[in-house]
Automatic annotation (TrEMBL):
EC number(s) on file: 2.1.1.290, 2.3.1.231
Function: Probable S-adenosyl-L-methionine-dependent methyltransferase that acts as a component of the wybutosine biosynthesis pathway. Wybutosine is a hyper modified guanosine with a tricyclic base found at the 3'-position adjacent to the anticodon of eukaryotic phenylalanine tRNA. May methylate the carboxyl group of leucine residues to form alpha-leucine ester residues.
Family: Belongs to the methyltransferase superfamily. LCMT family.
Superkingdom per UniProt: Eukaryota
Assembly and interaction partners: Interacts with RNF144B/IBRDC2.
Organism name: Piprites chloris
Protein name in the entry: tRNA wybutosine-synthesizing protein 4
Keyword list, A-Z: Methyltransferase, S-adenosyl-L-methionine, Transferase, tRNA processing
Catalysed reactions, as listed in the record: 7-[(3S)-3-amino-3-carboxypropyl]wyosine(37) in tRNA(Phe) + S-adenosyl-L-methionine = 7-[(3S)-(3-amino-3-methoxycarbonyl)propyl]wyosine(37) in tRNA(Phe) + S-adenosyl-L-homocysteine; 7-[(3S)-(3-amino-3-methoxycarbonyl)propyl]wyosine(37) in tRNA(Phe) + S-adenosyl-L-methionine + CO2 = wybutosine(37) in tRNA(Phe) + S-adenosyl-L-homocysteine + 2 H(+)
Length: 670
């Protein structure tokens, strides 16, 4: 548990070094320096921002009181006191920090050794009395085990804590490491002992969804299990926990809601532009698995720092599910490492042959951007996998992620865009040539040739997380390249028509209400046009709009598709059309109460139904984002290949094997 404190100090320090948070004291307290990934920086930024937001609100609301106090539980190497003192916010406030005796000793030694820190504290008095390890006029460090309430109370009394004045308790990922009976007792003790008090809690939530399972497993492996989760699995349970233990007011929000509604828009944009970033799914999932809670009692005026500065639609309440879809592992495809990947593409190149290319995954026991292509072929009712032989293997492929692959004939597919790293320019186009005939029983037998292209349409293709869809105009075939993002533009809203034969960019008139810019959306061919659904919009917010680009006499027309009830905004899903129904598979949304399963939109009536995926037969968490899926209409089966991602600091999760989802019950019952 102490190790988690040291590790989080290093992460905060790295975030400060990159300009996410302004804090010159972290580097003095963190000890070792290590540069963390942009995803970690964002995660620690929103955590620091939430704590600061609530602490400063408390100090502001209580500034008319002659004396106030802050009690930070399990403070570790946090720099809160030094930051507040430095900017003059502690005129009449004493800060008490409690942690394990050895942690507090290390911190006290650091402070005494560093002039920059000791100068802010000033003279020290009365140290070494019982649990008091360090004692300045407005700063006390106490070495006590939080789970021993009688010892804690005694030590605080000796250090001069006053039960009668306004007090803020802070517990930043602390209580969850204690047994529930002890943390509950601490929450109740604080409410009973202090007539005018506030409590700030920041910790994890939603243990049972796929990301939550990876998160729990990580902390268990560190030997620091998260105890709160089983009893208090969601924000509502945490709220009831406080209201049932003596606190009269309590508000709570997850970090997606906090980021969107409590951080000003210009500050959101500043943070989003600090580093090249392309891990939106994991960022939003991390934020939906942490919450900030504030509880208070006896406070006049009432303390409510978690009031949104802007109103955002609250994603409360469970999603109504119309039924469930069974998931089953494809037994014949288990144990093939090349299928463990994300950000890849899978496409049917023949009725029973699927080509999977690109992405990030597992190769020779290492995690890396993948060069190998894989073929799945169905022979005698059974799927087999093989690694593709590539003619002229060279740099042309470029280890790409988030590209598109479109089959234009029985021996040709066009690869458009994709990227290597998010800071590099996007990649251009390639032809993939494969044989017209092949031996279905031996997928290893298929060879694919890569052919480089330098056509006039090149600017259209330097993008990723876009879509490329076949359309027909005046009997001619085109590929419609839409949206996505590039190294320069975080979100694109433009489009191009590529003539399939010549790959030249053709100007075709498009009228009607233009969809808002987006990437990570879905696009399907339908009746000669294109159906665009969802995606991530300009402010990194999921979109719930559906548009149909339909052919008219002189060009195309954008038409909004109304859905009832409205489609829950999502992105990073896949989509298929079957008999007038649009099927959306997985993705990421902000509804933390459940993960997206299958959504069926009836394109005639607009009726929109959500189905949960029943994963009871899977032994591992099924992450349905950054996956690929192929719909097999004859069997009404969806084959999901790959998916997953880098789960914050909890490790990379790759769905270990392809999964088949049987849709026969939901497609016939409509």
């Amino acid at each position: 548990v102490q190790g988690t404190g040291g590790s989080s100090a290093v992460s905060k320090c790295s975030a400060a070094a990159r300009g996410y948070i302004q804090d010159r004291f972290l580097r003095l307290l963190a000890g070792r320096r290590r540069r963390r990934a942009p995803l970690i920086h964002r995660g620690y930024y929103v955590r620091a921002r939430a704590v600061d937001h609530c602490v400063q609100d408390f100090l502001l609301k209580t500034q008319s009181h002659p004396r106030t106090q802050v009690l930070s539980l399990g403070a570790g190497f946090d720099s809160l006191y030094f930051r507040l003192k430095d900017v003059g916010l502690l005129h009449h406030t004493v800060v008490y920090e409690v942690d394990f005796p050895n942690v507090v000793c290390q911190k006290a030694t650091l402070i005494k050794r560093m002039e920059e820190l000791s100068a802010l504290v000033g003279d020290t008095v009365g140290e070494g009395l019982g649990a008091i390890t360090f004692s300045g006029e407005d700063y006390k460090l106490l070495g006590v085990d939080l789970s021993e309430l009688s010892e804690l109370g005694k030590a605080l009394e000796e250090a001069g804590l006053d039960n009668e004045i306004p007090t803020l308790f802070i517990a930043e990922v602390v209580l969850t490491y204690m047994e529930n009976s002890r943390s509950d007792a601490l929450i109740q003790w604080a409410a009973e002992r202090f007539p005018r008090a506030c409590f700030l809690l920041y910790e994890q939530v939603h243990p049972e969804d796929p990301f939550g399972r990876v998160m729990q497993q990580h902390f268990s492996q560190l030997n620091s299990a998260l105890h709160s989760l089983a009893q208090y699995p969601d924000c509502e349970a945490q709220q009831r926990r406080f209201l049932g233990r003596g606190w009269t007011e309590c508000s709570v929000m997850d970090m997606n809601e906090f980021f969107t509604s409590c951080i000003p828009e210009d500050e959101q944009q500043r943070v989003q532009a600090l580093e090249p970033f392309d891990e939106y799914e994991e960022w939003h999932l991390k934020c939906s698995h942490y919450f900030v809670l504030t509880a208070s009692k006896g406070m006049e005026p009432s303390w409510t720092p978690l009031l949104p500065s802007v109103t955002v639609p609250h994603q409360a309440g469970p999603v109504g599910m119309a039924g469930s879809v069974p998931a089953a592992v494809c037994a014949s495809l288990s144990g093939i490492p090349g299928l463990r990947r994300y950000g890849h593409r899978s496409v049917l190149i023949k009725p029973d042959v699927i080509l999977t290319t690109g992405g990030f995954g597992e190769e020779n026991g290492q995690h890396c951007r993948l060069r190998n292509f894989h073929v799945l072929s169905k022979h005698a009712g059974c799927w087999k996998a093989g690694c593709v032989t590539r003619k002229h293997p060279d740099k042309r492929w470029g280890e790409r992620l988030y590209h598109t692959v479109s089959c234009v004939s029985d021996s040709l597919a066009l690869v458009v865009g994709g990227r290597m790293s998010p800071s590099s320019a996007g990649l251009g186009m390639l032809w993939l040539k494969f044989p017209k005939t092949y031996n279905a029983s031996d997928p290893d037998d298929i060879a694919v040739e890569l052919v480089n292209l330098q056509p006039a349409a090149e600017p259209a293709t330097f993008r990723w997380r876009h879509s490329t869809t076949e359309v027909t105009f005046k009997g001619e075939q085109y590929l419609f390249v839409y949206g996505g993002r590039s190294a320069l533009e975080p979100v694109l809203g433009d489009w191009y028509f590529l003539h399939t034969r010549e790959l030249s960019n053709t100007v075709i008139a498009v009228e009607g209400p233009v969809p808002e810019s987006r990437h990570s959306h879905s696009a399907c061919s339908w009746e000669g046009g294109v159906l665009i659904a969802g995606g991530l919009g300009a402010a990194e917010q999921p979109l719930g709009s559906v548009f149909l680009l339909r052919e008219l006499e002189h060009g195309f027309w954008w038409q909004a598709v109304e859905t009832y009830p409205p489609l829950i905004p999502r992105y990073s899903h896949t989509a298929h059309v079957h008999e007038g129904k649009l099927l959306l598979v997985g993705g990421v949304w902000f509804h933390a109460s459940s993960v997206p399963g299958i959504t069926v939109i009836d394109l005639m009536t607009g009726l929109c139904l959500d189905y949960v995926i029943n994963v009871e037969h899977l032994e591992w968490p099924l992450m349905l984002h950054n996956h690929s899926s192929v719909f097999l209409p004859n069997e009404k089966v969806l084959l999901v290949i790959g998916g997953g991602g880098n789960c914050f600091s909890f490790g990379t999760h790759l769905n270990p094997e392809p999964v088949s989802l049987s849709l026969s019950s939901i497609l016939t019952s409509h």
